[in-house]
Design brief:
CATH topology of the largest domain: Immunoglobulin-like
CATH class of the largest domain: Mainly Beta
Radius of gyration: 23 Å
Low-confidence stretches: 1-25
Number of helices: 4
Structural class: mainly beta
Helix content: 10-25%
Mean pLDDT: 85
CATH superfamily of the largest domain: NigD-like, C-terminal beta sandwich domain
Distance between the termini: 55 Å
Order of helices and strands: HEEEEEEEHEEEEEEHEEHE
Strand content: 35-45%
Length: 248
């Protein structure tokens, strides 16, 4: 009798699991429509003061999360993030400067990295000469009027040991119409470990004077499998581009 009851109970539970797994129609799933690089803006409002979080995109649009679930993510003021979202009302985009959004995901694995000048190749190599990977699809490198954003990959256990620096070599500056840079990587002596992928963001204000009057920004990267490769960005186009991209 006990054995029969056990069999019946198992059958019921199996039926429940199958029903639970397939009860939702995939066509009715809710997905984000856009993603955008942004900087976190924290402010206190009301009495008593309530902490409010909003996101300022790289083209200065303000995105206000409509749900309290945003508080589940630990964010800090001026932190760089990628926000995946949908507009609550898209009719005023892109003319308006502020929007209410529904947040689906926040990628906080973005490092704001430094810029440096190097007099020559030897000095540049001392900053970082290890090879790494760059994701160009689906995480396409972008240049906005505020930041240069590149998704990088490397092996390691302690992310704090791995340093990326955007370097301008003054004895090889580029051409009359192009500013040349190298994305230097120092693995901190840790060349083994897990496969890490994250974004690095470089504030454009730190190298804007070098790009003045140029048409193109070129970034050389020392890849793990194909040697030195180059990423090219149109400087004039970047000033008019939206920081929002559609989720494919």
């Amino acid at each position: 009798m006990k054995k029969s009851l056990a069999i019946i109970f198992t059958a019921i539970m199996a039926s429940f699991v199958v029903t639970s797994c397939f009860k939702d129609d995939p066509d009715n799933y809710d997905y984000p429509s856009y993603y955008s690089f942004a900087t976190v803006s924290m402010s206190a409002e009301g009495e008593p003061a309530i902490q409010k979080c909003s996101f300022v995109t790289d083209d200065s649009k303000v995105l206000n999360p409509a749900q309290s679930a945003i508080s589940l993510v630990k964010l800090r003021d001026q932190q760089r993030v990628v926000v995946y979202f949908s507009f609550l009302d898209e009719s005023s985009y892109p003319e308006a400067s502020e929007y209410d959004i529904k947040v689906y995901q926040i990628d906080t694995t973005i490092v704001t990295a430094p810029f440096a000048n190097a007099a020559n190749e030897e000095e540049r190599r001392k900053i970082g000469d290890n090879s790494f990977s760059v994701n160009i699809s689906p995480n396409t490198p972008t240049l906005s009027d505020s930041y240069l954003n590149i998704c990088v990959g490397y092996l390691g256990l302690d992310r704090s040991k791995h340093k990326f620096t955007l370097v301008h070599q003054t004895d090889a500056p580029g051409t009359a119409s192009r500013a040349d840079f190298t994305l230097c990587y120092d693995d901190g002596g840790e060349a083994m470990g897990y496969d890490n992928w994250h974004w690095v963001s470089f504030p454009r204000s730190e190298f804007e004077d070098i790009c003045a009057g140029k048409d193109t920004l070129r970034v050389y990267v020392k890849t793990r499998t194909s040697g030195y490769q180059q990423l090219n960005f149109r400087l004039k186009d970047s000033e008019s581009q939206s920081s929002l991209a559609r989720v494919n």
